[in-house]
Design a protein that fits this description.
heterodimer; A: alpha+beta; OB fold (Dihydrolipoamide Acetyltransferase, E2P); five-stranded mixed sheet; 4 helices; B: Four Helix Bundle (Hemerythrin (Met), subunit A); Heat Shock Protein 90
C-alpha cells in the first residue's frame, strides 16, 4: 500500500459518482466521455458486463462497476455517462467503457493528498484501489482500473466455465467484495 | 548509420519473403522432375532458383544459406551436364536440401551467423552426392564452369549477381506490387465503416423529404462510386488458390512414400480466387484432408493391382466457385470409407447404439466426431483420433461447412465450402425483445410463422411440423435470457448447416442486408452462440449468431427430450 502512495505524485484524476460514492480514475486513462446510449447486451456474460457499444466503428465492451463491486446494477438516468478508458488486459492496451451515474470534475492531487485505502469500510476491495484522494472535506476512491477489469475478466472466465452447472459459484466472491 | 540498418532490415525482409516462394517453387519443380526425369526445362528452373537464392543470401549476409545453395548448385550442375541421373533417392536428397535451406534461413533470420551442425552434416551429404557421379564426373565438372554462372559465386554474388537471374524469368510482364495484408485489412475496415456512415446519411436525407431531394440524388451518385471502390478493395484481397494447392504436391509425395504407397496430386481450378484471409484459414484443414486421403484412402500398390486399378493412386485437389462460396474438394480413388470399422468405432465411443443399424449418412457424420480414427496403428500422420474433427472446427470457424461422400472401392470425396470473404457478408436480421441479431444469409433456408399452439406453450424449445417433417426449434428469447413481453405472433427462421436443419424462434424478421463483421474482443472469448458483431445502420451494435453452435445445441436438446 505504501508503495502505491509513493507513485502518486502530482496527478490529475477525473472524478465521477457511482452508487452513492465518488470515484476517481487517472485522467490519462480516460479517452473520452460519452452520453449513455443504447448498449447491446451480450448473452451469457456476468452482470458486470453491460454489453457492447459502437465507438466510431469499433465495438467496445461496457462494464458496470457497481455490479462488479457487488452492488445493485446501475440504473440509467439523464446524467448517466460512459467513460471510455484504456486499460491493460493481459498486458494488451484495450479500450473499454465504464458506466458512471454522473461525471463530476477534474481534480489535481499531490502525493500528500492521497491516503492509503483502509482495509475495510469502503464498497470496494482494497486491491482495486490506488488510495483515497482527499478533496476538501470529502474523499474520492481512486480506482486501479487495470486491476478491476483484469479481475473482471478472470471472474468472467470462471463464471462462463461454470455457468450451466453451478452459477452460484461466483456469488461468494461478489459478496466478499461488498463486505 | 541508422538508415543503413533500416535498409538492411528491409532487404532482409524482402529476401525472406521471396526465398519462401523460391523454395516452394523448387519443391514443385523437383517433384515434377521425379515424374519426368528427362525434362531439362524443370532442371534449369530449379537451378535458376537455387542460384537466385544464393545471390540473395549473399547480399543479405546469410552465409550458411549461401554456402548450402552453392553446394546444391553443384549437384544440380552435375545433373544438367548429365554426369548424374535423376533418381528417386537423389530427388529425396534434393527435397531434403530444400528443408535444410528453410531451417538455415530461419536460423539466419534469427541472427545466427554460423551454420548449425545439421546444415554442415547435410552439406557433406550433398558433396558426396556430387562426387558420386563416378569417373566421368571430374572431366564433366571441368568443362562445366565456363557456361555456368556459379563461378562468380564467391565475389560476384554480393552485388550485380543477385540481379542476374532476373531476365531468365519469362513471365515477369505484369506490373505487381507487394502490399502488407494489414494495410488491405485496414482498407476493408474503413470501407465497411463508410458503408455504415453512408447508410445513415441516406436514412437522414430520406427522412427530410421534399427539401433534400437534390442532396439525396447527389448522395446516391456518390454511392455508386463508393460501391465500385468497395468492390475493388475486395478484389485486391483476392488471391488464386493455386499456390496453396501446389504446396501439397510435396505432402502427397512424402506421406505416400512414408506409407509405402504411390500417389500423385492433380490440381483443378487453381485460378479460383478467394480472400487472402480465407486462404490462411483453409491451409491446415487442407493438409489434414490430403494426408487422410493418402493414409486412409489410397490403398497399397499390390492391393490396387489386385483390384484392377492403376497402382499409382490419384488425389485430386479441386476448387470452384458456387453461389458466393468457394468449394474445395479433396478426392481420392482409394477404397472408400470402411463402414464396418467406423460403425464399430462409433458404437465403442457411444455415438451409435447398434453397429448393424448405422447408415451411410451416419457414417458420413460420425467421421467428424472427435476421437474417431480407424487407422489401426498410430502413425506420424493419422490414427491419433484428431483429424476430421479439427477440419470441421476450422471450417466452421470460417462459417463454412464440410461433408464427406464415399463409395466402397471407388474412393472418397471430402467437400468443404467456405465463404469467399470473411469481413463482409450478406446477413439476415431478426429481432428478439429489443435486440437485433444477424444470421448469415446463406444459412437461412426459409421463414415460417410459429404455430399458435407452440406460441402458447412458451417453452424454451420445441418441435414444429414443416411440410410433414418434424423440425426442432430453439426460442432465442429464452436461450439468451432476454427480458420483455412475448409478442402475440412469433416467427421461426429455418437454418441449415451442412446436412442439419433446425429453427430459431424470433419476434420479428427484418430481412437481409450487407454486413461488416467485427470481432467481439478478448473480454467475450468464452461466449457461446455468438460468432461476432456488426454495426447497424442506426449505429447500434448487433450480434452475429453462431449458427453451427446454436443448431447443435437445438438438436442436442431435441435428442435428449426424445430419449427421456
Amino acid at each position: 500500500m505504501a508503495k502505491t502512495t509513493e507513485t502518486v505524485e502530482r496527478a490529475q484524476y477525473l472524478s465521477f459518482s457511482l452508487a452513492g460514492s465518488e470515484y476517481g480514475v487517472g485522467i490519462l486513462k480516460v479517452k473520452e466521455i460519452l452520453q449513455y446510449e443504447s448498449v447491446t447486451k451480450v448473452p451469457s456474460t456476468p452482470r458486470s458486463v453491460r454489453g457492447v457499444i459502437n465507438l466510431r466503428g469499433q465495438v467496445v465492451p461496457v462494464i458496470d462497476l457497481a455490479a462488479k463491486f457487488g452492488l445493485p446494477e446501475t440504473e440509467v438516468t439523464r446524467l448517466t455517462c460512459i467513460l471510455i478508458v484504456e486499460v491493460l488486459l493481459e498486458g494488451q492496451p484495450t479500450v473499454i467503457g465504464v458506466l458512471a451515474d454522473a461525471v463530476r470534475e477534474v481534480i489535481e492531487l499531490g502525493s500528500d493528498d492521497v491516503e492509503p485505502a483502509p482495509a475495510f469500510g469502503t464498497q470496494v476491495k482494497v486491491d482495486f484501489l490506488l488510495g483515497m484522494g482527499k478533496v476538501g472535506k470529502r474523499f474520492v476512491l481512486l480506482l486501479d482500473l487495470d486491476r478491476v477489469i483484469s479481475a473482471d475478466e478472470k471472474e468472467f472466465a470462471r463464471e462462463v466455465a461454470a455457468a450451466p452447472a453451478d452459477a452460484p459459484d461466483a456469488q461468494p466472491a461478489a459478496a466478499t467484495s461488498a463486505a | 548509420m541508422d538508415e543503413l540498418e533500416i535498409d538492411r532490415e528491409l532487404l532482409t525482409q524482402t529476401f525472406l519473403a521471396e526465398a519462401e516462394e523460391t523454395l516452394a517453387r523448387m519443391e514443385q519443380a523437383l517433384v515434377a522432375l521425379e515424374a519426368t526425369p528427362g525434362d531439362d526445362e524443370l532442371l534449369h528452373a530449379v537451378f535458376r532458383d537455387a542460384h537466385t537464392l544464393k545471390g540473395g543470401a549473399s547480399l543479405v549476409g546469410f552465409d550458411p544459406v549461401r554456402d548450402l545453395a552453392h553446394d546444391l548448385e553443384d549437384v544440380l550442375e552435375r545433373l544438367r551436364n548429365r554426369s548424374l541421373t535423376v533418381t528417386d533417392t537423389l530427388v529425396t536428397l534434393l527435397l531434403r536440401s530444400v528443408d535444410v535451406l528453410r531451417s538455415a534461413l530461419t536460423d539466419a533470420a534469427g541472427g545466427s551467423a554460423t551454420p548449425s551442425q545439421a546444415v554442415l552434416t547435410f552439406r557433406s551429404h550433398l558433396a558426396d552426392a556430387a562426387q558420386a557421379a563416378g569417373g566421368a564426373a571430374p572431366a564433366a565438372g571441368g568443362d562445366a564452369p565456363p557456361h555456368s554462372p556459379r563461378d562468380g559465386g564467391e565475389g560476384g554474388a554480393s552485388g550485380g549477381d543477385g540481379g542476374a537471374p532476373e531476365p531468365a524469368i519469362p513471365h515477369a510482364a505484369s506490373r505487381t506490387l507487394r502490399v502488407d495484408v494489414g494495410k488491405l485489412d485496414r482498407m476493408l475496415d474503413l470501407s465497411g465503416e463508410i458503408a455504415i456512415a453512408r447508410g445513415r446519411l441516406t436514412e437522414l436525407l430520406e427522412r427530410r423529404g421534399g427539401g433534400a431531394d437534390d442532396a439525396l440524388e447527389a448522395h446516391r451518385d456518390a454511392d455508386r462510386l463508393y460501391l465500385d471502390l468497395q468492390e475493388l478493395i475486395m478484389r485486391a484481397r483476392m488471391v488464386a488458390i493455386g499456390p496453396t494447392f501446389h504446396q501439397h504436391v510435396r505432402t502427397v509425395r512424402d506421406v505416400a512414400t512414408a506409407a509405402g504407397k504411390h500417389a500423385r496430386l492433380v490440381v483443378e481450378g487453381e485460378d479460383v480466387e478467394v480472400d487472402t484471409a480465407v486462404v490462411e484459414h483453409v491451409r491446415d484443414p487442407l493438409t489434414h484432408m490430403v494426408r487422410n486421403a493418402i493414409d486412409h484412402g489410397v490403398e497399397p500398390p499390390e492391393v490396387r493391382r489386385a483390384r484392377g486399378k492403376d497402382p499409382v493412386g490419384r488425389v485430386v485437389l479441386r476448387a470452384l466457385h458456387d453461389a458466393g462460396s468457394m468449394v474445395i474438394q479433396v478426392e481420392d480413388d482409394g477404397g472408400g470409407l470402411d463402414k464396418e470399422k467406423i460403425a464399430a468405432k462409433a458404437v465403442a465411443l457411444g455415438l451409435a447404439a447398434d453397429a448393424a443399424r448405422v447408415t451411410d449418412d451416419d457414417v458420413a457424420r460420425v467421421v467428424f466426431e472427435p476421437g474417431l480414427s480407424t487407422a489401426e496403428k498410430v502413425t506420424e500422420i493419422s490414427g491419433r483420433g484428431v483429424g476430421m474433427d479439427v477440419v470441421r472446427r476450422n471450417v466452421e470457424a470460417l462459417r463454412g461447412a464440410v461433408s464427406i461422400e464415399s463409395e466402397p472401392g471407388r474412393g472418397t470425396t471430402v467437400t468443404i465450402r467456405v465463404p469467399l470473404t470473411l469481413a463482409i457478408i450478406q446477413g439476415f436480421k431478426v429481432a428478439v425483445a429489443d435486440e437485433t441479431f444477424i444470421l448469415p444469409l446463406d444459412a437461412v433456408v426459409e421463414c415460417v410463422e410459429l404455430p399458435p399452439e407452440e406460441t402458447a406453450r412458451a417453452a424454451p424449445w420445441g418441435v414444429i411440423e414443416l411440410r410433414g417433417k418434424p423440425l426442432p426449434y430453439l426460442r432465442l428469447r429464452d436461450h439468451f435470457a432476454l427480458a420483455g413481453a412475448r409478442p402475440a405472433r412469433e416467427n421461426v427462421v429455418v437454418v441449415r448447416h451442412g446436412a442439419l436443419a433446425a429453427g430459431f424462434a424470433v419476434d420479428v424478421l427484418h430481412g437481409e442486408s450487407s454486413t461488416v463483421l467485427k470481432p467481439l474482443g478478448r473480454l467475450f472469448k468464452g461466449v457461446v452462440g455468438v460468432a461476432g458483431s456488426s454495426i447497424l445502420g442506426n449505429g447500434r451494435v448487433a450480434l452475429m449468431l453462431d449458427v453451427a453452435g446454436l443448431l447443435r445445441e437445438t438438436l442436442k436438446r431435441a435428442a435428449q427430450a426424445a430419449a427421456a
